[in-house]
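Case study B.
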Amino acid sequence: MGLTIAQKIIKDHLVSGEMTAGSEIALKIDQTLTQDATGTMAYLEFETMGVPRVRTELSVAYIDHNTLQSGFENADDHRFIQSMAKKYGLYFSRPGNGICHQVHLERFGKPGKTLIGSDSHTPTGGGIGMLAMGAGGLDVAVAMGGGAYYITMPKMYKVNLTGKLRDFVTAKDVSLEILRILSVKGGVGAIIEWGGEGIKTLSVPERATITNMGTELGATTSIFPSDEITKAFLEAEGRGADYVELSSDEDAVYDKIIDIDLSSLKPMIACPHSPDNVVTVESLKGTKVDQVCIGSCTNSSLLDMLKVAALLKGKTIRPEVSLSISPGSKQVLSMLADCSALSDILASGARVLECACGPCIGMGFSPNSAGVSLRTFNRNFEGRSGTADGQVYLVSPETAVAAALTGEITDPMLLGIMPKVNMPDAFKIDDSAVIAPATIEEAADLPILRGPNIKPFPDSAPQEDVLTAPLVLKVGDNITTDHIMPAGAKILPYRSNIPHLSQYCFGVCDSTFPERAKAAGQSIVVGGNNYGQGSSREHAALVPLYLGVRAVISKSFARIHAANLINAGIMPLTFENPDDYDRVSQGDNLKIEDVYAGMDSGKMVLKDLTNGDEITLSCEFTERQKAILKAGGLLKYVGLGNL
Ligand code: MIC
Ligand code: SF4
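Model:
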């Protein structure tokens, strides 16, 4: 039987396990990346492992999220990460150099290699045929230390593209269309391979937009073949030597095949507050728009920005609309400045922000009260923009420009003729904002620079055989990590200060949760389907751990979050019968006996001491996961000699 692209890379990197969907596999990791919002914690964790230097082929520490420095905290964290990078053998991408995924694609990614990153949009690398996955900071720390990365062997899905996109219909619309078809949980447990004749019409930045947004499907990752288009991109980056050809076998077998005819697609838009709440742009025409943001790791490539500049050229945006543009990298910004594109953008009335995540993570540029904001980003979760009642819609750069020019949601096809924009034959290469690590000899004497905002991380306790605890919070379906541990400019500076962060935990759902959880000592949280979707932030597990949460019971979990809970020593359990979700109420006292036997049999009995009900729970822990939970989390497990 033939292999898919992902199966080929997995086979080449398999450390242990069977390549059958559903079994646990361990992979050798070639490259890692971190960003600053998850990086500080990841490097603190790495430090405790006592490994003198990273053991990957390449590890890069990016600063791109926490770039507003309204106090000492973020600046201190940047210095800490820079000092760690220098000492432990990592490349350091300075603030201003760009968004991790964009820069990694431009300068470091290699087809056929494995990459994990402490950011859920790491699958962007799949645009050049990498097996690139988002992971919790602790998993990235272990990989930096030379340990394997453990995942469940995914199912294989294939999307076959035919035809060619019409002008004003873009890769972003392809992403929104697949979200409309599959929903935010449609990719859980799967790797999505993109193929068919239609992919020959998509450039690397367009492919990367698609693999980036595969994260919103809940997929383990997404991947394109590495072909002549990949080769041309790498050559234009001066990295032709990194090219290897990669394709699936003709007789590769897929668990699901979806066909999309690119020529039939229309401009699409995701409505508040979920990326799969997708309709055509046309159907919302006339909706007034207050703000437009262009950028993020989804749509900030040179190609995107050149198209935006060409559409804005000679025009001015509506007075009632505020437009921000964040180029994805220094390379992009500098090339925009070298041609007249940057002047065209500025002349239109846009505000050019730095090359960073910015508004995407609520790091500035929050919309006005109840403001309608059209963004070329990948997430529109409630409150994420920093304005609690902000109404965020996700669109392509073309649709974003149409709204900025007209003041309302407008089908970009009405803009007339799409100016021709070409990818350059050669990108401008200037790696001066990437700082190389010290040599092993120099490294020994280098200090680590720690600011006062860095507090010890929470101590986890081994799971005991009996758990008795109140149900302190019951939430519904599709709870995101932005619900569990909100981000934004005010909170993000405390990513290395869990006690401070804890007061905001579940703030979007119930601001009284932290106090209640603390008072309970230890507690249980109950959720619906797809609990923990969205980001890779391990803070969504570490902060509940700090507040005493010992188990989360849900109808189903998102992949990275379930792993983060186990890494933190918290049990993710599911209702065997999803309808049993209705049989427990917030405030009930719950008890699980024989936890260890349950871990072995895959079933536990939940007793509701308040209403007398007994409910069967499922858990499918691997031997390693059981050992991690019994040790009190991954850090302790690693401390027992299990790197
Ligand atoms: C996001 O887009 O939600 C983030 C911010 O990039 C996160 C990481 C984080 O919370 O620091 C992600 O996607 O993993
Ligand atoms: Fe940054 Fe937004 Fe991309 Fe997350 S989704 S990495 S916050 S640009």
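The radius of gyration is 23 Å. The remaining cases will be described in the next quarterly update.
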